[in-house]
Amino acid sequence: MALDETTEELARAAAAGDHRALGELLRRVEPDVLRHCAKLLPYRQDAEEASQDTLLAVARNIRRFEGRARFSTWLHIVTANCARTTYRSLKRRAAEQSSGEVPDLRADPARVSVIAGARLDLLDAMEALEADKPDLAQALVLRDICQLDYSEVAGQLGIPLGTAKSRIHQARKYVQAALGDAYG
């Protein structure tokens, strides 16, 4: 999400408590947020749910935006986190609806496109990485999902550039191993 300077200014004003700026900011970023969620979640309804959750999270937490980084960077992180939370929630609901049976949450090739199935598998791998090694997951989300450059990842995490690169490399290896031979 590359947002223009007007959007960045609206974010700073909203963070300072300007409610009008917040309303305008949410209106301006909504299409980008939905597009970003749709890249992560294969079904439109799920992407819309994550998009609404993201906009709500922005509205609730805008005062936490300190302006040290660009608003677009902060928004990327919030969006990726909300999309992953939506996915976890959908998995939990599916498990609860199955009446105690453990459902096979792998993508069914008869019902899901190859791209959508790959996204679901990636979200599963990311969830496992986050549970196992959250430091690596943060770095990977910032680099590969939010598409920040390495120095921005290091800055966001408050770590040296070499450490950021190492974490991203380790995270990619972990995810690749979790995805297995089908994605190698």
How would you sum up this structure, described in words?
With 184 residues, the protein is mostly helical. The protein contains eight helices and no strands. The chain has helices at 5-15, 19-40, 44-61, 71-97, 114-132, 134-145, 150-157, 161-179. The longest helix has 27 residues, at 71-97. The chain is globular, with a radius of gyration of 17 Å. The protein starts with a helix and ends in a 5-residue tail after the last helix. Mean pLDDT is 82; it is low at 105-117.
* Approximate strand percentage: under 5%
The span between the termini is: 28 Å
Element-level helix/strand string: HHHHHHHH
Tell me the major beta sheet.
none
- The counted number of beta strands is 0
Shape: globular
Mean pLDDT across the residues is 82
Low-confidence stretches: 105-117
Rounded to an integer in angstroms, the radius of gyration calculated over CA atoms is 17 Å
So how many helices?
8
Class by alpha and beta content = mainly alpha
- Helix percent reads over 70%
